[in-house]
Amino acid sequence: MDRTITCEVRGGIAFLTFDRPGSAANIFDQATFEQLNSLLDQVENDSSVRGLVIASAKPKIFIAGADLSGFSKDPSPENLSKIVDQGQRIFDRIANLKFPTVAAIHGVALGGGFEIALACDYRIASVDSATKVGLPETTLGIIPAWGGCTRLPRLVGLPTALEVILSGKQYPTRQAQKLGLVDDSTYRERLEGLATKKIVDSHGRKRVTKTHFSNISPLATVIADRAKKKTIEKTRGHYPAPLKALEVVVNGLKSPTAVSLENEKKAIIDLTNGEVAQNLIRVFFLQERAKKLTVGDLKPEVKPKRVLVVGAGLMGSGIAQWLSARGLNVVLKDIGPEPLGKGLQAIDRVYRDAVKRKILTEVDARAGFDRILPIYDDVPLTNVDLAIEAAVEKLDLKKQLFSQLEPKIPNTLLIASNTSGLSIDAIADGLAHPEKVVGVHFFNPVHRMQLVEIVRGSRTSETVLAMAVQFVKSIGKLPVLVKDSPGFLVNRILLPYLVEAIRIFSEGHSVESIDRAILDFGMPMGPLRLNDEVGLDVSQHVGSDLAARVPHLPPLNNILPRMVEKGWLGKKSGAGFYVYRDQSESPNPELKQFQPSIEPTNADQLTDRLIFTMVNEAARVLEEKVVTEPADVDFGMIMGTGWAPFRGGPLKYADSVGISTVVSRLNHLAGKFGEHFKPCTLLNEMVNRGGKFFDAKR
Amino acid sequence: MKEKIYIVDGVRTPFAKSGTILADTTAMDLGKTAVSMLLAKTGLAPEKIEEVILGCVGQPAEAPNIARVIALRAGIPESVPAVTVHRNCASGFEAVTQAAEKMIAGRGEVFLVGGVESMSQLPLLYSYETAKKFGAFVRAKNVAHKFQAASQFRLSDLKPEIALQLGLSDPVCGLSMGETAENVSRDFNISREEQDSFAMRSHQRAIAARPNLDAEITPVYLPRSKNGKPYLKQDNGPRENQTMEALAKLRPVFEPNTGTVTAGNSSQITDGAVALLLMTEKGLKESGLTPLGRLLGYDYVGLDPARMGLGPIHAIHRVEQRVGLSLKDASIIEINEAFAAQVLACQKAAVSLEYCKKNLGRDSALGEIPDEILNVNGGAIALGHPVGVTGSRLVLTALKELHRRQADKALVTLCVGGGQGGALWLTRN
Fold first, then answer.
1. Could you tell me if A370 lies within 8 Å of chain B, comparing CB atoms?
2. Cα dist. B251→A266, B247, B256 in Å?
């Protein structure tokens, strides 16, 4: 087998360089650990060695962490125990080497990749945008168990350690250095020189870290209590990993290393066997799967020089911002300076926010903004090689726009529509090149939502579809392929739920109780608040459009039209189901006029009505082959709407509740609240044959 | 000229009075807006550009060679060089004529030129004497020395020098630009009322010309404007409600008791930018674009700095000698309205045999500059005078006007602080 790690001794310093053959990433799997172990033997037995440097030869990755497939394929305590022990033992060995050690980090050092660095005396990092360090384990439902929970608090103190471990954030070099996660930084080319200097300057002595004041009780207890309270508030009790990590970290402060490592092990075995971790790890793999999505074997290189974005509204400006931040030149077209000016204001806000959060430098943000050229005149567009339409969701308007646009952009690879639910076939009708038309549907807010639905019209060419997929991946978004059907995947499932929420409201339930039920379920936002976010006019429009094209939808009522009439358009107008005033929101007090005065007593069924509406529609989407696999449905809902990730998505959730339970609950709801709850054919069939959406193994 | 120099196209930002709606927009942003829009409008591949030449008088300290900063920010490739030029009020001419000279010398076929100025953002400065005291304070090694150095500061050190004011004064003759305008108003006996009516007319013409001017303006977007429109598309200098009474109420600025030059009959201090695309015949053919017009000839000339306002007369004479075109050949004439007094003085000097004989060595007067064809779309009194920009703006506005009138030739001139004049002849054909 090819070697992953090479060892060179130069001037009395051993350089262990990770370079996994045939891969862009270094990871820790069993073979790598075995190699590392035998190299450590070699280094320890070489009397000329007075220092050790751990480095990576990859351009973007130091070490990406553990091989997660080991955690999901066989989560048995025996197997996990083996994996954890191996890592702990070897990192401990590194920590106990008699000579000084340095991790020279270039590229991402995450999870195990950062834990090996924590086992070294010094950590230095390259000042490169690729370099990031962090411990993302809790976001996967597990905890750092190769010494991360034990060593980090000793190195940087409890408050910083908790911030790093509980948030799972990835820190760029400058921030990492400020937090003490790395000691020093330099250019990539000079990392080796700096590492050598660290070893030479330490004169053969190991580094001694003083105990942080904040690690000593009672201060530590106060800090831990506060962190615990905050975590419970944030996770609503759905995510056990952060609390477990907190416990292990705090206990570790007063225990010897060996005991703390043992605690780490116990905790990770417990967590990994839970449903939450398995679901979160699955979400991770679904993301990886999307990154590798191709159309057949087609992998056309799509590197547009100039992208035309038509429409500077919410979506158009969001798309323009995202593309420009990824280094693409954008021509942003609208009908006049007013909408363009507003769009640019929105774009500027996103950029400023990114600077404030240190995601971008001032210089990068300005350069990104400069790449956007706002136009409303009829200027030559022959140099456009990719076009995305994000105009108003009206079919006539879109058709007219496409037919006017088509002859002006003869050199475009494809013409994408960002429609959230209109038919791609209808949009492409009458064009000279309908094969160039494809749906590329981003989600709002574009800079936050990773999902993009790629809609294949019946005439969309294979190459164009493949180009759309490659393009979406190249801009750092995650594609899912969907059929050209009303609402596609995400909005199709979401809309009945939004409509049902308004129905529930009209029966007399309060805005808070409806939204709270769903927040408690684990969604990032309640359905009425989401209606406000989408815009009530948009919601009404999409609702009636979908209702005309999709059977089984919950019947619409007149609440939305009446609200829109009053000028309550949701967040953008300052009022909707909530009233928005300087950063804060509260339920709209004037809404009572739309409701019966008595609140009904069936509050316990709110969650069922809302969630099972989605589950039913999710099954129907699969039944109609809008997507090809159940995993696509769950992936789309989690990445496109933030659907409670720890529950694994609507279909995984159906599996865990049990399909027969889902069906009987739906039948019960249908009897009480209306025919639209009737379970779909697929669900009924599954009950008959005793099937599940996913094999138990996956 | 040895080469046909085409002005292919141009755009400008709206002009806004300094301290108003464009005050927070940097000169770089203004320039970037005009340059990138010109590229978009023409569809020219930016790598075809030989060099970017922009006029700017008050270059921001943070953007030395502002032309280069603007070129890069507008997406012009790194390999295309850029230079900022400064001939005071004629900097916008200088950008055009420098490109012309390079083309005539065979040094390229396509040039992007123009001017940029944010007079709002001109800084306040510390005097050299004050700066020296700061230096001594920083260098002082111990507390006693620091104290000693600090004790040297006087209250007067805190008073900043205003870069704008310094720029509008001539260090050679020791006069401010307004004082030179008072000089020519006395020489030619131009009354306050004449000057005010001229100013009045400038506003009226600029207001009437709004639809015309609109065609050359690209909006400046205001992504950080807190309230109000998120863009500016129209010059905000011209006043619809301007009256003679209001003008008459203003106090003379430079000669309190007997003076005639007021804020109302002087050019406005303004922010803005212009970009023009210049090509040789070869460059034009390759681009496939239709030009606005052509540069027929140009010249600059020096004269008494204390009477710089008469610069256009001297320049018109010089260029007549060089290319044989005289006032009667012009379908329209632009004389930049630095001051009403100075434009009126030019009109009088042009028909004065005595002046032309004595100062230009001619045996006939230059000829008449008729009101009907002079500054037909208003001038800097209404539109404003962003110093480094005006020259290019006049070229653009005049060429567009030739098209509207289906006329042939335009004479475009301006006076230059420090005692110079510049004149350009343009043709539509």
1. yes
2. 87, 9, 7
A491-626+658-689 belongs to CATH 1.10.287.1490: no
B145 is catalytic: no
Domain A306-471: state its class.
Answer: alpha beta
Which residues does B contribute to its contact with A (CB < 8 Å)?
Answer: 32, 36-37, 40-43, 45, 73-75, 219, 221-225, 229-231, 233
The answer to whether residues A550 and A492 touch, using CB atoms and an 8 Å cutoff, is yes
**Which chain B residues are Cβ-neighbours of A369 within 8 angstroms?**
223
Percent of chain A with pLDDT over 70: 99
The reply to whether A5-273 and A306-471 are identical in fold is no
Assign B261 a pLDDT band (cuts: 50, 70, 90): very high
* 3-class SS letters over A332-371: EECCCHHHHHHHHHHHHHHHHHHHHCCCCCHHHHHHHHHC
Which residues of chain A fall below pLDDT 50? 698
The number of CA neighbours under 13 Å toward the Cβ of B233 is 14
Q: How does pLDDT run across B373-401, given as a tens digit for each residue?
A: 999 999 999 999 999 999 999 999 999 99
Flag whether pLDDT at B227 surpasses 80. no
What's the pLDDT score for residue A210?
Answer: 86
Helix axes A650-657, A630-641, angle to 10 degrees: 120
Q: Which amino acid is at A176?
A: A
For residue A287, give the nearest of A20, A634, A625 by alpha carbon. A634
ipTM of the complex: 0.93
Across the interface, do A337 and B233 touch by the CB < 8 Å criterion? Answer: yes
Q: Chain B interface, mutation test: which of A307, A331, A342, A385, most B Cβ atoms within 10 Å?
A: A342
Which domains does chain B possess? 5-119+269-427 (3.40.47.10), 124-161 (no CATH)
Task: Say whether B89 is catalytic.
Answer: yes
List of chain A residues whose C-beta atoms are within 8 Å of the C-beta of residue B289 = none
Contact call for A342 and B230, based on CB within 8 A = yes
Q: Look up residue B266 and give its DSSP letter.
A: B
| Predicted local confidence at residue B154, as pLDDT | 85
Looking at residue A698, its pLDDT comes to 41
| Per-residue confidence (pLDDT) for residue A696, from 0 to 100 | 63
Interface contact A380, partner B, CB < 8 A? yes
Select from 3.40.50.720, 3.90.226.10, 3.30.2010.10, 1.20.1090.10 the CATH code of A5-273.
3.90.226.10
CA distances in angstroms from A20 to A3, A36, A132, A320, A391, listed in the order given: 7, 12, 19, 37, 46
d(CA B126, CA B132) in angstroms, rounded, equals 10
Q: Residue B412 and residue B373: Cα distance in Å, rounded?
A: 12
Active site residues of A: 441
| Residue B396 near residue B412, CB atoms below 8 Å | no
**Nearest by Cα to A477 from A388, A392, A371, A393:** A388
Among the options B89, B314, B317, B356, which is catalytic?
A: B89
Q: State residue B150's pLDDT score.
A: 86
Domain residue ranges in chain A: 5-273, 306-471, 491-626+658-689
Select the residue of A341, A366, A379 nearest B221 (Cβ to Cβ): A341
Of B40, B222, B233, which is closest to A379 when you measure between CB atoms?
B40
